Amino acid sequence: MGADPTRRGIVTGVGAMSGIALSGAFSRRVRAATKVEFALRVIADGVFAFQGVDELMHPENRGAICNLGVVVGPEAVAVIDSGGSLVEGQALVDAIAAVTARPVRYLINTHVHPDHIFGNAAFRPLGPTIVGHRNLPAALEARGDYYLRSYREQLGDELMQGIEIMPPTLLVEDMLELDLGGRTLRLKAWDAAHTDNDLTILDPASGTLFAGDLVFLGHLPTLDGSLLGWLRQMDALAGIEAVRVVPGHGPAPTGWPDALDPERRYFEVLAADVRKAIRDGAPLAKAVRTAGRSEAANWTLFDDYNERNATVAYAELEWE
Amino acid sequence: MQSDVFLKLRRSAAVLLFAAATACALAVADPAAAQQSMAGSEKIWESLRGDVVGDRPILVDTGLIRIEAPKRAQDAALVPVDIYIDPARAAGIKAVTMVIDVNPAPVAATFQFGKDAGVTHLSTRVRVNDYSFLRVIAETESGELHMSQTFVKASGGCSAPAAKNSKEALAAMGQMKLRQFVPAADEVMTTSQELQLMIRHPNNSGLQRDPITQYFIPAHFVQNLKISQGDRLILAMEGGISISEDPNFRFDFAAHGTEDIRVEAADTDGKVFTDQWPFDPTGS
C-alpha cells in the first residue's frame, strides 16, 4: 500500500462494465454496445472508492449511480455496497481482483435501496459474509420483491438478469467491529434517517468514513425514513472522528465533517418551509410545490426528488 | 346501523378484492401493461362497474362532484386527493364512493355525510398502485349517480409497504390529532369551519410477510370512521387498504352550536379508538 493516494489514483484498478446490446420486444430502442469505465480509485492507504454518476438508474449507466468502497486489510477485504446491477457488481469484483489477491471477507450493505444492493449476487462466488443493519432483513422482506418487479421497467430485462435480493447474515444491532486481520472497521447502526436501516462504516486506520446515504453531496438527498431522525442525529454524525468521507452520492472522498453542511442546510430549509405551511394551514398538495424550492440551484436531481421529500416531510412534521 | 349503501358496498368490496388481485397480477406479468395507462385503467373499471353500481346509468362531470389529484404522484403511498361537492346540491347526496381502478381493493372508501353537515370539500391521502383513474361517484337521494375522474401516474403505492420507521408507527397506533381552521375568505365561498383529523394507524395492506415466520401479515386497517359534532354526524367512512398509512381527512362543515367534535374509529382487529375535542370556532 503506497503512501501517496493521488499518485496511485486513477491507474489502479480500472475495470469495465461491459455493455449490453438490448434487443427484442422489451427494449424501447436498440442501444449500441458500449464500454463504461469502472474506476476504482485509491483514496487512502488501502482504501478504494468508486464514484457513481448523479443520475437516476437507467440502462446506459448500468445502475451505477451510488458510491462504493473497498478496504484492504492485512488478511482480508471488506466491500461497502455492491452497486445497482449485477454488471456493476461484477465490475467491482473484477476491479478488486486487480488490486488485491486477499479474500473478500465482508460485503457490507449500507441500506436497503437497489442502487446499493443489486450487485450483491456478483459476490456469491467469493463467499463473503453479508453485513447489514438490524432492520435490513425486514426492509428487504417488505420491499425486495417489489424492487425486483418495479426496477425491471427502469433498468430493462437484460440488466435485471441475475439480480437477487441477498439478505445480510451478520446484523449490526448498534455497534460492531469487523477485523480484517489487524485492521478493524467500526460499523454503527443508526436510528431512522435516510431509511430505517442506515449503517456507517469507519476505517480508523485511515480516518475514512463510509457514510452510505446518510451523506449526500451534489445529488439531492432523498428521504425514505425520518427527517426529524436525520436532523436529530446530525451532530452525532458530525462527531465521528474521520478526516474524509465517502458519501453515498457525490464527490468521493470529501473532507469531513464539512461534507455534512449542504444537506444539513437543505433539511433545515425544507423543515422550516414545511412547518410554516402546516402552521398556515396549507394542505399537503399545495405545500409541497413550494417547500425547499430556494435550495433548487444547489443540487442536481432537485426536480426528481424535492417534492417527494417535501411530501414525506409534511406527513411527518404535521404530527409535531 | 349500516345503511343499504354501506352493506351493498361492503359486499362489493369483497368481490373486488379478488377481481383486482387478478388485474394486478396481469400488470406485473407483462411490463408493457404497466404503460397501458388510461385505456387499461378504463378497461378494469368497465369490469368493476357492475359490482360497484350495478347497471344503473352514471352521469359524468355534471359539476355535482369533482375529484382532483396530482397528475404524477410524488409518493405513490401518499397521494393527496381532493373531492369537491357543489354546495348548492350537497344536501341531496346520500353517499360518495371513491374508486382507484388498479388497486388490489379498488373501492378505496365510501363516505356518508350528515344531513345538515354541509361538507363541500374533503381531502384525504391514498395509495395508488399503478397508472390509474381515481374516481368519485356520488349517489343522490333521488338515486342518480354522478361521477368525476382524474388520471394519476403512480407506481407501487400498495405493494411497497411502508418501511419508514416501522417501530414508531406501531407504538403510536390509535393516537389522534384534530386541527381546526377558519378558512381564508378568498379560498372558499362559505364561512364554514374546516377540520383536519389525523389517526396514527399502519393501515397494513395484507400483502407483506413476517420476516421470521414468512406468513403473510393479515391486513390491518381502519374500517369504519365516524366524525360528529355532539350527536350530529358530520362524516362517516367505510374504508380499506387504499387509504394511506396514518389516515388523514380534512373537510369543511357547517357547525351547529358549540358541542364537542367526537371521533370513533374501528379497525379490522376490532380495536376501537375514540377521542373528542372542544369545538373551537376561532380555529386553532
**N- to C-terminal distance of chain B:** 33 Å
Q: Supply Rg of chain B.
A: 18 Å
Largest interface: A-B, 38 and 37 residues
Structural class of chain A: alpha/beta
Within the largest sheet of chain B, what's the order of strands?
Answer: 1-8-7-4-5-12-11-14-15
* Count of DSSP H/I helices of chain A: 10
- What is the highest CATH level, the class of chain A? Alpha Beta
Shape of chain A: globular
- Order of helical and strand elements of chain B: HHEEEEEEEEHEEEEEEE
CATH homologous superfamily grouping of chain B: SoxY domain
The tally of beta strands of chain B, per DSSP, is: 15
The CATH top-level class label of chain B:
Mainly Beta
Counting DSSP E segments of at least 2 residues, the number of strands of chain A comes to 15
What class would the helix/strand composition of chain B place it in? alpha+beta
Low-pLDDT runs of 5+ residues of chain B are 1-34
Topology, element by element:
The complex is a heterodimer of chains A (about 325) and B (about 280).
Chain A lengths: L4 H4 L5 E5 L16 E5 L1 E4 L2 E4 L17 E5 L4 E4 L5 H14 L4 E5 L5 H4 L11 E5 L2 H20 L1 H4 L9 E3 L2 E5 L4 E6 L9 E5 L4 E9 L10 H6 L1 H5 L5 E6 L4 E2 L5 H19 L4 H7 L11 H16 L3
Helix pairs in contact in A: 8-9, 8-10, 9-10
Chain B lengths: L3 H26 L7 H17 L5 E2 L4 E4 L10 E7 L7 E8 L6 E7 L7 E6 L5 E9 L4 E8 L13 H6 L4 E6 L11 E7 L22 E8 L2 E8 L8 E6 L7 E7 L4 E6 L7
Parallel strand pairs in B: 1-8
Antiparallel strand pairs in B: 2-3, 3-6, 4-5, 4-7, 5-12, 6-13, 7-8, 9-10, 10-13, 11-12, 11-14, 14-15
Helix pairs in contact in B: 1-2
Would you give an account of this structure?
The complex is a heterodimer of chains A (320) and B (284). With 320 residues, chain A is an alpha/beta fold. Chain A has a single domain (5-259), classed as Metallo-beta-lactamase, Chain A (4-Layer Sandwich). In chain A, 31% of the residues lie in helices and 23% in strands. Chain A has a 7-stranded mixed sheet. In chain A, strand 6 (77-80), helix 2 (86-99) and strand 7 form a beta-alpha-beta unit. Residues 1-12 and 19-34 of chain A have low confidence and may be disordered. Chain B is of the alpha+beta class. Helices cover 17% and strands 35% of the residues of chain B. In chain B, the strands form 2 sheets. In chain B, strands 1-8-7-4-5-12-11-14-15 form a 9-stranded mixed sheet, covered by helices on one side. A 6-stranded antiparallel sheet of chain B has the order 2-3-6-13-10-9, with no helix packed on it. In chain B, strand 14 and strand 15 form a beta hairpin. The radius of gyration of chain B is 18 Å and the shape is globular. The model of chain B is unreliable at 1-34 (pLDDT under 50). Chain A binds chain B through residues 25-26, 112, 135, 137-139, 141-143, 145-146, 149-150, 152-153, 157, 192, 195-197, 224-226, 229, 281, 283-285, 288, 307-308, 310-312, 315, 318-319, and chain B through 28, 31-32, 34, 70, 74-75, 78, 80, 82, 123, 125, 155-156, 159-161, 163-168, 177, 179, 181, 183, 194, 198, 200, 208-209, 211, 246, 248, 250, 283.
